[in-house]
Amino acid sequence: MPVLVMKFGGTSVATPDRIKRAAKRVGVEVAKGYDVIVIVSAMSGETNKLVGYVEETSPLFDAREYDAVVSSGENVTAGLMALTLQEMDIPARSWQGWQVPVMTTSAHSSARIEDIPPDNITARFAQGMRVAVVAGFQGISPEGRITTLGRGGSDTTAVAFAAAFGAERCDIYTDVDGVYTTDPRICDKARKLDRIAFEEMLELASLGAKVLQTRSVELAMRYNVKLRVLSSFEEQSDEAGTLVCDEEEIMESNVVSGVAYSRDEAKMTLLSVADRPGIASIIFGALSDAGVNVDMIVQNISEEGRTDMTFSLPTNQVARAERAMNDIRGKDLNFAELVTDDNVCKVSVVGIGMRSQSGVAAKMFKVLSDEGINIRVITTSEIKISVLIDRKYMELAVQALHDAFELEKAA
Ligand code: ASP
Ligand code: MG
Predict the structure, then answer these.
(1) Which protein residues touch ligand 1 with a CB less than 6 Å away?
(2) pLDDT, tens digit, for every residue of 263-317?
(3) Which residue puts its alpha carbon closest to atom 8 of ligand 1?
(4) Residues that bind ATP, according to the entry (predicted)?
(5) Which residue among 48, 101, 139, 172 is the one 20 to 30 A from 267 at the CA level?
(6) How many CB atoms lie within 10 A of CB 58?
(7) Which of 175, 205, 240 is the last residue of a domain?
(8) Which of residues 144, 175, 206 is at a domain's end?
(9) Rounded to the nearest 10 degrees, what angle do helices 72-87 and 63-70 cross at?
(10) CA-CA distance, 256 to 401, in Å (whole number)?
(11) Relative to the alpha carbon of 40, which ligand is closest?
(12) Is 291 annotated as a binding residue?
């Protein structure tokens, strides 16, 4: 029988009552003849609570025990979902990651899935079981320890199962009814997209759109998994939600498909570093060793052999980055001053249409200039343009760009 993967996020399994509602959806697909693999998140708020317990108990926690604790939220919802389905006379069984097994790397708290042997679950389907409920977000390392996949990781569990079982589709049930042109909370003209290309979704996810974990989109793109994002709170139909798919499957699209933002960005500048081979490697090597995720990088033209180096990073990593730079100062690196601005944000426009149409950057800069917004740093890729601007202009910039690129209208 064809296999369908259905993933329910934290708000969709937040109470026994909501689990019942989700189970009814599963029942609809079972009645159509699918063998269903259900991936569940923890009840909403649960993972945060567990992370809090760990931090309270041990500020410099052992990552293996962090995983042991924070993976447990999904165990509860997996068992409850299986029980709920059984109450509906649907043959169902739950699996924790290690039981499948979901084999991962040993990078605790951000492990990657390496393999999901389908044999155990397939054998049970052959015996008449109709639904396998799997705890998302978790797996087992080569050392036999429980691992987790990073926050939001049950999306990745779902896509990995869809790939491993050759599922017809992977439906991600969440509390929004799809992927929007931008965040409807800051732009009331935001429009739900019927389809979005994997690459666009990948950019939007890594730019901070929280609807899918970035790695899940990467996996879906690699294995061409048909991925649908839809609400578990609205009526179900085959057209519901947003389909994340190959760009060939999209007939018409706007040049820009979405405007994304990330609020908590900071900008750091090292003034007057030597302009010679090896300097960038020293700076960004030290930042990387300190676990700082650098995003944009700009090096100024040099004067008399010295230059300024600017980079952006999440605001909560500023202290770490400052420490890393001060640790190498006077040893591997000399600089006049380290200037930090933690009042910036990043706003980006994304669209595969940019590959074939020029002038998008010019238009974006014109829109921002008309609003009197100063651009501090710019970066581009084939399908994305990002700017760093003062945080107080974030909403204004998003709304103005949404208007200028007419994203409220479908192509
Ligand atoms: N429960 C985990 C989290 O909150 C994983 C997930 O829900 O995707 O990050
Ligand atoms: Mg999520």
Answers:
(1) 10, 41-42, 47, 73, 136-137, 151-155
(2) 999 999 999 999 999 999 999 999 999 999 999 999 988 888 999 999 999 999 9
(3) 152
(4) 7-10, 174-175, 180, 185, 210-211
(5) 48
(6) 11
(7) 175
(8) 175
(9) 20
(10) 10
(11) 1
(12) no
